[in-house]
Amino acid sequence: MIDLKNKELTFESCAVHAGEKNKDQYGSHITPIYQTSTYVFNNVEEGAKAFAHEEGGASHIYSRLGNPTVEHLERAACELETYGLKDADEYVGMAFGSGMAAITTGIISIANGKHIIAQDALYGCTSQFLKEESDMLGMSCSFIDTSDLFLVEMELKKNPNTALIYLESIANPTMKVSDIQGISDLAKQYGAKVMVDNTFATPYHLKPLKFGADVVVHSTTKYMGGHGTIIGGVMVAKQSFLEEHQTFVFRKNLGGISGPMDAWITMNGLKTLALRMEKHSSNAMRVAEFLEAHTVVEKVWYPGLASHPQHSLAASIMENGYSGIISFELKGGYSAGEKMMNSVKLCTLAVSLGTVDTLIQHPASMTHSVVDEQLRCEAGITDGLVRLAVGIESAEDIIADLDQAL
Ligand SMILES: *Cc1c(COP(=O)(O)O)cnc(C)c1O
Questions:
Q1: Residue 405: predicted pLDDT
Q2: Which residues on neighbouring strands pair with residue 218, listed in sequence order?
Q3: Domains of the chain
Q4: 197 within ligand 1 shell (Cβ under 6 A)
Q5: How many C-beta neighbours within 10 Å does residue 271 have?
Q6: Which pTM was predicted?
């Protein structure tokens, strides 16, 4: 990272410059897209040393193992997630072809053969992976409400072979916030690791590593990429941690690394992360207040509202606002939600989030349709829940559109 001597670089400046390293051989201002599968060795010795990880070896071998453009994104993601940490130098980033590739590679490398304690309300595919596929991979998994530390400790006591506690910093889509520090302290006590999916909050609002988490993962498809143009993922953890769990080897052999083009597009997105999140979160706050005051709205879930069950916890661990995602329940249930989603004009009916435009969707029939119905309802993802990913249009226009649709 850039060293200003007497002054620490702000997060905003860090986002603009993150990952910058050496001057390119042609003086290219922006990191080029190294669109290549393989790399040329000057001689056999250089190739052999590269494979043996010895000094004097070629810096790159094959793009499933590493690629200069992908490495720029990895440095950038790492710098943002470790911003402000004293031991930031000990951390590294890894980029993946999707958020799910980052999540599954991380979970398999850390928890293979052991037990996982997972949050009950998770991103649909993460939940499906843990519920239906962990068994096949020799892992067991139990689901609990991680916002309740008592339940976390009970579950750790019940499962002494727990290797991993897995949660989302803001849980999809009920916006539940967990006490990451409390969970990390318990995990240490019981010999488990903590992995946090920080996709919804982004490091602009929340840095889980600061609160003792061991690993952070992201779907960069969302806010980090920011424009809805790529599918990607990143992971950030201590290098020694990733080496100990062979995560680099797992990524190489499972083959989930990001392609250079997607990494390059994501890097462009990261540069405006702070700027975009500031607008996403200030817009979302206004939209959440509008919805909460509306007569046809039953309930609004947004960590920035005083009515949110973990609002004070969110206020103590989040910075600069509460990100851009809101869930709400209409008084008329599913049919009212359906009618509303079919009536919006500015908002777009689509799954995903973190794009510059406002997206609206229905978790029960869309993103969370793969989740077991009972588990889904227990986690608060009811049939009438609508999820809004507030964009960076003007708040007035978003509110006017919702108002006419309601
Ligand atoms: C989208 C998303 C994922 C999955 O990421 P992909 O890039 O679609 O593979 C995981 N976690 C959360 C919270 C997400 O929103």
A1: 93
A2: 234
A3: 11-29+63-270 (3.40.640.10), 31-62 (no CATH), 273-405 (3.90.1150.10)
A4: yes
A5: 17
A6: 0.95
